[in-house]
Amino acid sequence: MMDALEVQRRPTVKKHIRIESTGEFTIGIDVSDRTSCYCILDHAGEICCEGKLRSSPEAYRQQFGGMAPAVIALEAGTHSRWMSALLTECGHQVIVANPRRLRLLTTSDKKNDPEDARTLAEMAWAKPALLSPVRHRSADAQRDLNLVRARDLIVEARTKLINGVRCLVKGFGARVPKCASERFTKHADLHLPQEARRASAPLLELIDELSERILEYDEMLEHEAQTRYPQTALLTQVSGVGTLTAMAFVLTIEDAHRFARSRDVGCYLGLRPKQQDSGARSPQLRITKAGDSYLRKILVSSAHYIIGPFGPDTDLRRWGLKLCERGGKNAKKRAVVAVARKLAVLLHRLWVTGEVYEPLRKQIQEAVAA
């Protein structure tokens, strides 16, 4: 009995419901780190060529550079940005598919690279909208965003070293008190037992060096924000949002007008709950965690500050604290995520409108109404 996957792959789509394409051929490419498999369909949806090539600019230009304009579909990933730019330069229409939407690929029980390339080609031939196309950011935005990502890598390395030193001293019955990461080496030097100094001293030197590098990245980001991204000043009006968060927000979204509504930003960043409603059943689920994980992480960090003990009095803080008062085991966690989602919407709104941020806008409106 023919399995369901093979039945689905028969080219039964009628021509009159097919979306118009710019070329006679439709190509699906399954990309891996070293090699890529491709499948070429003709105008009737029949396979006319399959092959494999190296995942390098030279190989792609040699393979697709001399071809007639075609529709090419590939998954979003590490290499998809430069691949889509190169293929577009060669005159092709490129569709970068959202892998989170391609359950046919990720959950298939007949998964291999050539099969995935065929699936991408057939979906692009039949209905490209099923691929949920994504748009890559520009080369300039990616270059500047790399500063943010590189800084985060150094912060993670410093955190691991700090935790490692804390574990080393605990073996001798000592403990380094809690303190800011920038002051850890001074505190550790006062509480290190003599037995642990030989192993910990080089680690403390590395921690100091990483702290200096982090400051250098902060200065570079501050310079970029002031000279090339003046819109970040609108975002830093909000308490808990600094230059790093504003730069990450602006560079990740890049085009503020890509969203019809500011409320769509929360969904784009994966801060809305999943939905699996069926009939009268509507379970409460975790957030989708779609979109950029780093931006989502720092927005959650900003939300922790906003509803934390040091956050100033604002409408957003009051709203978050009311959610915390509902009680329950996970009330604080849910409130933090909700504040992060609302913060993303607020930042986008400030970016689009250019308005001056009013921390207690509702209180002012109520006073005027009274």
List key phrases describing it.
single chain, 5-stranded mixed sheet, alpha/beta, 370 residues
Number of strands: 5
Q: What is the helix tally?
A: 15
Helix content: 40-55%
Tell me the β content: 5-15%
Give the biggest sheet: 5 strands, mixed
Mean pLDDT: 90
Query: What's the helix-strand series?
Result: HEEEHEHEHHHHHHHHHHHH
Uncertain regions: pLDDT < 50 for 5+ in a row? 1-22
Query: What structural class do the secondary elements suggest?
Result: alpha/beta
Tell me the overall shape. globular
Strand order of the largest sheet: 3-2-1-4-5
What's the Cα radius of gyration?
26 Å
Structure description:
This protein is an alpha/beta fold. 52% of the residues lie in helices and 8% in strands. The chain is built from 15 helices and 5 strands. The chain has helices at residues 4-8, 57-64, 80-89, 103-106, 113-126, 139-170, 184-191, 194-227, 232-235, 243-253, 264-268, 293-306, 315-324, 331-353, 361-369; strands spanning 26-31, 35-41, 47-54, 71-75, 93-97. Strands 3-2-1-4-5 form a 5-stranded mixed beta sheet. A hairpin with a 5-residue loop joins β2 and β3 (47-54). The longest helix is centred in the middle third of the chain and has 34 residues, at 194-227.
Write a short abstract of this structure.
This protein is an alpha/beta fold and 370 residues long. It is built from 15 helices and five strands. It has a five-stranded mixed β-sheet with strand order 3-2-1-4-5.
